[in-house]
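Aim 2, interim progress. The first record below pairs a target sequence with its structure tokens.
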Amino acid sequence: MKTIYDHIAANNRKTWLLLLLFPTALSILTILATVLAFYAMGDLRFAAQFVAPHQEFLLSHNITITTGNVYWLAGWFFISSYLPFVFGVAIIWMLISYFCGDTMMLSFARALPLQKQENPQVYRLVENVAIAAGLPMPKIYIVDDESLNAFATGRDPKHASIALTTGIINKLEPLELEGVIAHEMAHIGNRDIRLNMMIITGLSVFAFLAEMIGRSLRYPISNNKDSGKIKILLLAVMLALIVFNFFVAPIIQMAISRAREYAADATGALITRNPRALASALKKISSDARVEILDGKKTMSTACIADPREPKVAFQSMLATHPPIRTRIKRLMEMGG
């Protein structure tokens, strides 16, 4: 029988492998798109313009330019010339998200801060779980919705928040609610809150770049005779970004989110030493997890303990961000100490 520690280690390894797929898949898609564009144009002279400045590099690596590889080399060098700009935009965007992302997420959910005197029992539960997890006390927020859901956010354990719906507070038994809080505390301790913001921000950067490229195609690039061909290359990159954002990235994001949910379940069970309480809570949550205000907030779904969107959207989709709750319950019930 696998122990809690086995589940945590396996899911952590899977997450890092999946994260590597983001830059790998994007690089492959954009290079293939530009190579196909060069082949479609069939202009060796035009392709050679992108390869010629790198002859010293090619010679040092014993790479000979031929009619068979010039389009591949041109595609590679064309994409690599834009990487500094892409990384610059991504870094700026991620810094904004790093410092403001949690405020935005709490605002999306219309979450309000909970003072200790307003609900001492919930405050003590969070405090006790934080102590058991060896983490700082997070801020507590309440989402005014009678559904059963919760999420954690923040850039690190020192700047973390846990949001609970009024429904999850009122409808769960204390031990079940403790299990949910431990699950969210696990997301904080495992740095999933930062990971979620990085993924959401990274995807928005590429969507923004695709939109900017699309807008730039409306205007003349230069007065030289190759301006039309450069536009074809930019169009190829834009299409690659669109394919990545709408088809490839959601699959990777889904896999990462599922791995992190399994890891948070296992870590939460480790914190409370009571996997059955969290399993019982998940069973109740599965009956009413929808938070109406988050129906249109697809990016928020990865942060919640269960997908907060309308059931037909959340659970019937092949790209559901959460693993089936029955599977999560089964895993929790099978965990040893």
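The second target in this work package is listed in the same format:
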Amino acid sequence: MKIRLEPSDEYLHPLETASNFNESMYFNVYDPKERLGGFLRLGNRANEGYAEMTTCLYLPDGRVAFMFGRPEIENNDAFDAGGMKFEVVTPFEKLHTTYTGKVALLDDPLQMANPRKAFTENPWVDCSVDLNYRGIAPMWGGEPVNDDGTALVEDLSGGFARGHYEQHVGATGVIRVGDEEWVVDGFGLRDHSWGPRFWQAPYWYRWLTMNFGDDAGFVISIITAPDGSQHIGGVALEDGEYRHIHAATIETEWTGSDIYHQKIRATATAGDRTYEIEGTVLNLIPLRNRRTSPEGDKLVTRISEGMTEWSWNGRTGYGLSEYLDQIVDGVPVGASA
């Protein structure tokens, strides 16, 4: 087996027969000068008739501007739904992202643990995001194929993503929320995934994205299956090159009765290099996905999105710490791991 990645993979892939086929792009950014960051995500689930659209902006004063929707779509021809649009300008080099629509302004982002209440009790304002992304690193990832380049034949309907790649990026543009406007010049990470997806496929995972300017950054990923087996990966970006992470540990300090991550200590090894990184969550919003299993069980997945300040080798960086956990008896399963 080998990994295939072509410039054509920057565009939409043929819609497959799996009912839960998903194709998504995700972009995050943080501007240290403005103390402003966030992410946009659009996931096409055309066989289910909708896209998952998320706008999440961490404002300088601690509020979060947030919107989630499931706009109707009929095909997998474009990333263009619910006021959000992603365009590939030059594959692997330049992309353009926009969102125009409403957002809920949350003084307390933890209210999103109860979305109905949060959306009802907080004010709504107009929002626009217009950001140009540029690659500052090579591509990492792709789609597994046979050694001869032909597609793998296996049932992935219960999986999370078949094709997936990521890239550290820079971003410039303008973000408006209500009457406020910021000119953004920051760094972040983007990804692109395609294939069948259930959010309940991982038992829990930790996905840490970090930028320390245009010359350094990390992605550290630990994905845990229900049987306890783990896939550990990621990359270390130094001097414009990626080193692949083959071993990593993440220690977490938790806070609050709902058990959210607050402080992080990560150790990662790539080749002969070992990196020790500490993180402090600046602001966090809990998101969730619910599904009924074929057996009729009500499954709840929590995705806690923490805008995080990172410290490594005397440098300060920023990025997202995304903690996904299945919720069992009201408790995130990975909290005791």
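The two ends are 31 Å apart (CA to CA). This observation will shape the mutagenesis plan for the next reporting period.
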